[in-house]
Amino acid sequence: QVQLVESGGGLVQAGGSLRLSCAASGRTFSRFAMGWFRQAPGKEREFVAGISWIGGTTAYADSVKGRFAISRDNAKNTVYLQMNSLKPEDTAVYYCSADSSVGATMSKPWYGLDYWGQGTQVTVSS
Q1: Which among 12, 34, 43, 74 is most buried, taking Cβ atoms within 10 Å?
Q2: Residue 85: left (phi > 0), alpha (psi -120 to 50), or beta?
């Protein structure tokens, strides 16, 4: 089992920045690809960013490329999502996910991924 706990969400004005963290415990963190997803009210959960278990490969949704950056620190069992130039359309609950059988693109339907955190709310005001 892997437990994931997100933190760092909050309310920010458009153009601002936030850094989300996802702390993992349980099984060997370094063997899992990690990803961030988000879900806005009334919308499907969508992929935001992912990073391979070694950390050498990253992937991003087109909507966040150039603004968001994912990274991981395997020594701290933590994955981060640095979000810059935030827009009101980035408002959503952000979830951390871990899976041992995918790469950075987290290429499974979201409901098929192994582990999820409880989510953290990000609200961007205009």
Answers
A1: 34
A2: left
